[in-house]
Amino acid sequence: MRNHLPKIITLIVACGVSGWLFAGDHGEQDEGREGGGLPAVDHKAWRAECGACHTAFHPGLLPERSWRKLMDGLDHHFGENAGLDAATRKSITDFLAANAADRLDARRARKVAASIPSGETPLRITATAWFERKHDELSPGVWKKPSIGSRANCGACHPGADKGSFDEHAVRIPR
Length: 175
Ligand code: HEC
Ligand code: HEC
Known about the structure:
Low-confidence stretches: 11-35
Structural class: mainly alpha
Number of domains: 1
Mean pLDDT: 84
Bound molecules: heme C
Shape: globular
Distance between the termini: 56 Å
Largest sheet: none
Helix content: 40-55%
């Protein structure tokens, strides 16, 4: 075990330095390098329950106050009853809150959070100015294609959506 110690220390130092180099680069190209990504997060009940009817939307796509409001109204969830037992609801709410746009230390998350005025609590990612801006090149008719159906169907065009990956090079619009 003792023999591994120098290696481990080298590794820690190397990671620290590259982390510092990475953090120091605030250029636009940063976004490309991150692959349009949010850090991968997971929670079993969230994936199962919130991924049952649509893409399991990454918590970093809305601020904490939005998730709390949304989770308080699951019985009337966009025309559906998505109600959960109290324990599951609390567990998912805690997970969403802890990884929300205004809580995550990630460039993409900070941008989402900054795009939403503090007095607003949107329940839709697709209603944020940030979402509009990222998709303003798409013609309005695209969203209505049967293979897509809704703006909220992130996974139709972003294969890695459920993992928080929105890499622009991976986007493919279904026919
Ligand atoms: C019974 C089905 C169902 C379940 C379960 C469900 N949802 Fe939804 N959800 C919907 C529908 C329907 C919409 C509206 C979709 C649309 O407009 O295309 C929606 C929309 C949303 C939106 C807004 C999408 C946008 O337009 O940006 C969010 C956020 C969301 N759901 C989060 C959740 C979370 C979190 C959970 C788990 C606690 C959950 N949903 C579980 C049916 C469901
Ligand atoms: C109709 C297909 C389609 C749907 C549905 C869609 N997107 Fe996109 N998305 C695109 C396209 C096209 C771009 C622009 C890619 C580019 O800049 O070249 C994009 C860009 C993005 C970007 C920026 C990527 C980057 O690297 O800068 C993010 C983040 C994103 N979308 C998130 C979402 C989320 C979240 C949803 C669902 C709530 C969603 N998208 C739904 C097609 C779609």
